[in-house]
Predict the structure.
Amino acid sequence: MTEMRIAAEIVAAENDKREAAHRSDYQALGEKLARSSIDIDKVTAKVADFFVAVPSWGVGTGGTRFARFPGLGEPRHIFDKLDDCGVIQQLTRATPTVSLHIPWDKADPKELKAKADALVLGFDAMNSNTFSDGADQAHSYKFGSLSHVDAGTRHQAVEHNLECIEIGRSLGSKALTVWIGDGSNFPGQSNFTRQFERYLDAMRDIYKALPDDWRLFSEHKMYEPAFYSSVVQDWGTNYLIAQTLGDKAFCLVDLGHHAPNTNIEMIVARLIQFGKLGGFHFNDSKYGDDDLDAGSVEPYRLFLVFNELVDAEHRGVKGFDPAHMIDQSHNVTDPIESLISSANEIRRAYAQALLVDRAALEGYQSGNDALMATETLKRAYRTDVEPILAEARRRAGGAIDPVATYRVSGYRARVAAERPAVKGGSGGIV
């Protein structure tokens, strides 16, 4: 039986209030695009078929190294998290899958599957956790996990990843994402070469356990919690890992895991060119790995990333099938609203990239016309595609204005009354 957390009557009533204005805006945009020989309905259909997974951890309030300020109605467990994820999908129709993090989301797989089915949700990539210690684990990850000098600690980390695969198989997941915090904080603390050899040996054991139809995503991060060196610190090392492990191993690109001013869209192009782009963790950043809402700081960069993705789609690149996931920390907003907004911004960048005149762009590039080449991109980026996004949601049964509808529904106040308040906490520095 389908379980909708917001009454369908509320969504319908809110859509009715906006439908006339929306239809007028959609028609006007359609006429404008038609002058460039672009069929708005075809673009809308492609946008409606573009989905991004939401992270289970994203529906809780995040924090910093200094402090955490909990929000109202925080999810108590994975089943509350799935309820919140169901609301995001109900209103956006863009997030039909959830990415779980083990052991945080560990529960009876049958109960998880039943709950997700009731909410019409599926499961995306599984995420392992060997960057913090669990309550009952035998070996600490303080000095590393998959690259630890102690064989017992490495074995424990490998076994945890194998458990994630088994849980994922029972839920219908098809991928495992591995991010580790391994590295060093002082020069000389670790032998870079031997440390990386140990990591690769451990990853080989994980890779061997992958089902035939699964993919393994390795994720790089420049720094934190290791501040002198990280084992998987950049896309070059990530590419070496994927090449070494085999055909089912790919690189995952988190938009926040780069040095400031890094040309992320070029990294995306390189990984596409050599067949190793596995997917994305979408977020935004200002200084480092800030995990801000997607498109909140650098929406043009997000568009340029999607320009490379649509270019690959347009060229029919063999085996091109990147996974799309959100990975954010919400410190001052309602997490559900932020995830709704981010899903919308990710689709916006995709829609804008679909409007790029590829033939004209190629001509300007071939003619070394730098100004007109960049103007071709900007023309698509400057187009207000909100009517397309709203129509894609409306046709799928979602909300024309999902954030406004969410607020009218009173969902946050309702779950705040059901879920016990969470006390604030400090980070590791204060």
